[in-house]
Amino acid sequence: MAHAVTPAATAQTLARLESLADALAALGWQADLDEPPGRLPCLHVRNPEPGAFALSEHIYAQPRRDGTWAYWWPWAQAIDAPDPAGAAAVITRALRAQPAR
Fold first, then answer.
1. Which one of 19, 27, 92, 96 is at 20 to 30 Å from 55 when CA atoms are compared?
2. How are beta strands 42-46 and 30-34 bridged, if at all?
3. Which residues have CB under 8 Å from 60's CB, separation 6+?
4. How many CB atoms lie within 10 A of CB 43?
5. Which residues have a Cβ under 8 Å from the Cβ of 16 and sit 6 or more positions away?
6. What is the DSSP secondary-structure string of 55-74?
7. What is the pLDDT along the chain (101 residues), one digit of tens a residue?
8. End-to-end distance of the chain based on CA atoms, in angstroms?
9. Residue from 58, 56, 59, 61 nearest 10 by CA
């Protein structure tokens, strides 16, 4: 997932992360944009359920090798959904607290 960080790529990245943040907010989830100096911007997504706040992850938006954009887990695995609403569904499903057995 290593790509050159250019101003144009950063602007596209931020726009895609903001779209994902909006899709997550529509589902009641918390997502904050993180722009650490010298690193790729990402979205810190947190499960809002009581007691599940530790279920969180940083999500990235970067182009694939073929030029299409994707959302990425921090371990460099693409999220299998190209649009913000689909990616939000995958992320919330992965970070949902499992019921006690």
1. 19
2. antiparallel
3. 1, 13, 40, 41, 42, 43, 71, 72, 73, 74
4. 24
5. 61, 69, 71, 84
6. -EEEEEEEE-TTS-EEEE-T
7. 444 455 556 889 999 999 999 999 999 999 999 998 888 899 999 998 887 778 999 999 998 889 889 999 999 999 988 799 999 999 999 998 776 56
8. 38
9. 61
Residue in 96, 34, 25 with CA at minimum distance from that of residue 59: 34
Round the CA-based radius of gyration of the chain to a whole number and report it: 14
pLDDT for residue 34:
93
What angle in degrees, to the nearest 10, is found between the helix axes of 7-26 and 84-94? 60
Q: Which helix (H) or strand (E) holds 30?
A: strand 30-34
For the whole model, what pTM was predicted?
0.85
